[in-house]
Design goal:
The complex is a heterodimer of chains A (326) and B (325).
Chain A: E1 6-17, E2 26-38, E3 43-47, H1 54-61, E4 69-74, E5 77-78, H2 79-85, H3 87-93, E6 94-97, H4 111-121, H5 130-140, H6 157-169, E7 175-179, H7 187-204, E8 207-212, H8 215-221, E9 224-229, E10 232-238, H9 239-244, H10 249-257, H11 265-268, H12 298-302, E11 308-310, E12 313-315, H13 320-325
Parallel strand pairs in A: 3-8, 3-9, 6-7, 7-8
Antiparallel strand pairs in A: 1-2, 1-4, 4-5, 9-10, 10-12, 11-12
Chain B: E1 3-16, E2 19-32, E3 36-40, H1 47-54, E4 64-72, E5 75-76, H2 82-88, E6 93-96, H3 100-103, H4 110-122, H5 126-139, H6 145-148, H7 158-170, E7 176-180, H8 188-205, E8 208-213, H9 216-222, E9 225-230, E10 233-239, H10 240-245, H11 250-259, H12 297-301, E11 307-310, E12 313-315
Parallel strand pairs in B: 3-8, 3-9, 6-7, 7-8
Antiparallel strand pairs in B: 1-2, 1-4, 4-5, 9-10, 10-12, 11-12
The chains are: A alpha/beta (326), B alpha/beta (325).
Chain lengths: 326, 325
């Protein structure tokens, strides 16, 4: 087995919320004991609903927010120390693409300038090569040289996202964190961007952490899937195995709730999920999912299930074996 | 069954500094009582403009309905005096929008907001309106409605706010509910709850639903008839079964393939090349022609009219009815 390019161990991130003058602030645990490995050239999808911590995970990995506890290694080097000592080199290894490409491009800079800035900051090439490099990067994301001197407002959403991807690729990263990269785009454009990302991955062997709320999409495009709920990974395993069945009741419910052309909701969800995601400020005792789980027992409120191996994947449920049996 | 709503030749323009944008062109359709019709399309397709225009909600300062007729329960909404229009909106036509936080007033309790239309339209007393509001909250499956009724919108979760919106929209038992992207802002597990709620209430109350969405899977879930829009025009119309099983317009066909996210053997997703044309630079012929694999010379020159392929199923494509796909 090759060495993982990214190894995350026990990641924790808490935010202090609403301190009064006298009251101690509440702690919001956005990430709780998140561990996983990512291998070169692989796509790991992280899925979950709003508030599950998936975007916090993206920001922590990309070095945009510091962790509260835990560690992650990028190509064997400690990520947190890496950011502290040589942030530029860290960002050359790890880049991020966000959901809203309009918000992540400077509206007053041309496409050429936005991409060239990344090249210059990281001293990726000589000044005289810059123009050729930017043109080449644009070509790689499927944009012609006509776009060099355009401003973001002159581009469509899909084109803007292509520019963001080109900029991320400028520093030749080993890992690309994609935080909902296609959620803001029209369906017909989503497929274009996904196919582009897959092509780039095949050519360059970049590993992707692909954050998404769309389970139907990630089942098609990822090698492994991690499902998150209230800051924790509840199930992680090979996407191929997850085509057939999920072992955690939440993953199962999430998939069943995803509308699919050609299958009725009532048929997919024999036991519909009730209620909303609980507040992450005061998550339920024991298993976080028990308040909405159709299979919850007394044990689920008393004893917090550990992430353990069942049928070749990791599941955080006391009854994963029973789910596995059907 | 008689037609509840008849829209004929509706065209809407938005004047801008770069010239007029034709957001909706020559749009016609009909809805029967109790029917669920979905307007589906991507951004810029004109679906939301259509919904706003037919309830006369486009502010006169930003856009103009330049032609068309909207017959609803025997009256032309576009010609109705404002006073009568108010009688129709809210009472006969209920509406829900994508973002319930924007549609609810943050400084009034949800009970007050729910009771207001009941007092306005039915002249109920404070007391009676409040009792009815509690009942409505129960109907949209909000737990402990007696307590919730005195809370403010910010006290509720996104899913619950959307339920309150639905309760408000249905408070006066309208004959038509316009739902503009009602579940787009919600998480999928909550979306599933809200969709099944809309389905249940529709069956109970017999309300017709005009659903505006970009999500074909949601359309498949609840619509009886589907209208596919592209770049301000209707390109296909038919029963859900017709459109999903046998789409006639190349755009509808490609969109359905893209929406399934089903990769072929090579791991690539089916995509539609190119982008939606800019409203300032519309192609002269069929608006989908620049992206269409089957486009011919004529497609780039002449706007294709709607052609019927089967009873109740029509598409605006010259290829409809011809043997070559």
């Amino acid at each position: 087995m090759t060495e993982p390019i990214l190894a995350a161990r026990g990641l924790r991130k808490s935010f202090s919320i609403g301190s009064g003058w006298f009251a101690a602030p509440d702690q919001l645990h956005a990430l709780n004991d998140v561990s996983f490995d990512l291998y070169p050239g692989e796509t790991l999808a992280v899925v979950g609903e709003s508030g599950c911590g998936k975007s916090t995970l993206a920001r922590c990995l990309a070095g945009l927010t510091d962790l509260t506890a835990g560690s992650f290694a990028v190509a064997g080097a400690d990520g947190r120390a890496f950011i502290r000592d040589d942030a530029l080199r860290f960002h050359r290894a790890m880049q991020i693409v966000f959901q809203d490409p309009y918000a992540s491009l400077n509206p007053r800079r041309t496409v050429r300038r936005s991409i060239a800035d990344a090249l210059r900051l990281h001293r990726m090439c000589k000044r005289e090569e810059e123009r050729a490099r930017v043109t080449d990067l644009l070509l790689q994301v499927g944009l012609s040289a006509d776009y060099l001197d355009r401003y973001p407002h002159e581009l469509s959403g899909g084109q803007r996202q292509r520019v963001c991807i080109a900029r991320a690729l400028a520093v030749e990263p080993k890992i690309l964190v994609c935080d909902e990269p296609v959620s803001a785009l029209d369906v017909s454009i989503q497929a274009q961007i996904i196919n582009l990302l897959k092509d780039i991955q095949r050519r360059r062997g970049i590993a992707y952490v692909f954050i998404s709320h769309n389970l139907a999409l990630v089942r098609q495009i990822s090698d492994r899937i991690a499902v998150m709920y209230l800051g924790e990974i509840v199930e992680i395993g090979a996407a191929a195995a997850m085509q057939r069945t999920f072992l955690h009741p939440y993953s199962r419910a999430l998939f069943a709730a995803t509308p699919v052309i050609g299958s009725r909701q009532e048929d997919r969800m024999r036991v519909p999920l009730t209620g909303d995601v609980p507040s992450p400020l005061h998550p339920p005792s024991g298993c976080h999912f028990r308040t909405r789980c159709p299979f919850a027992t007394a044990r689920c409120s008393e004893e917090k299930p550990a992430l353990r191996e069942v049928s070749g994947r990791l599941v955080r449920c006391h009854f994963a074996e029973a789910m596995s049996a059907g | 069954m008689s037609a509840l709503l008849q829209v004929e030749g509706l065209s809407v323009r938005f004047p801008t500094t770069r010239g007029d944008v034709a957001a909706l062109e020559d749009f016609s359709f009909e809805m029967r009582e109790g029917e669920t019709v979905a307007l589906v399309g991507e951004s810029g397709s004109g679906k939301s403009t259509a919904a706003l225009a037919l309830s006369r909600l486009i502010p006169e300062s930003t856009g103009r309905v330049i032609s068309g007729r909207v017959m609803f329960e025997g009256r032309d909404l576009l010609a109705l005096p404002v006073h009568d229009l108010r009688e129709v909106r809210g009472r006969r036509i209920g509406m829900i929008f994508q973002d319930p936080m924007m549609a609810l007033n943050p400084v009034f309790t949800i009970g007050w907001q729910l009771a207001e239309p009941l007092r306005q339209h039915f002249g109920l007393s404070q007391r009676a309106a409040r009792d009815r509001a509690v009942e409505l909250l129960g109907q949209v499956a909000i737990p402990a409605p007696e307590q919730r009724i005195d809370q403010y919108p910010h006290n509720l979760s996104g899913g619950m706010r959307q339920r309150v919106m639905i309760a408000m929209a249905l408070a006066c038992r309208p004959s038509l509910l316009i739902a503009d992207e009602p579940t787009t802002a919600l998480d999928v597990t909550v979306q599933a709850q809200v969709l099944s709620l809309i389905k249940t209430l529709k069956d109970e109350l017999g309300t017709a639903v005009l659903l505006i969405t970009h999500d074909l899977a949601v359309v498949w879930e609840i619509a009886q008839r589907v209208i596919v829009m592209y770049a301000g025009r209707k390109v296909e119309e038919g029963t859900a079964a017709d459109v999903f099983d046998d789409p006639q317009h190349p755009y509808a066909r490609e969109l359905l393939r893209a929406a399934a996210f089903a990769s072929g053997g090579d791991g690539r997703l089916p995509e539609i090349p190119g982008t939606v044309p800019s409203p300032f630079d519309m192609p002269p012929g069929c608006r989908f022609a620049p992206r269409c694999a089957s486009a011919r010379e004529i497609c780039r020159a002449v706007l294709p009219p709607l052609k019927s392929s089967a009873p109740g199923h029509a598409a605006a494509c010259v290829l409809v009815g011809s043997a070559v796909p």
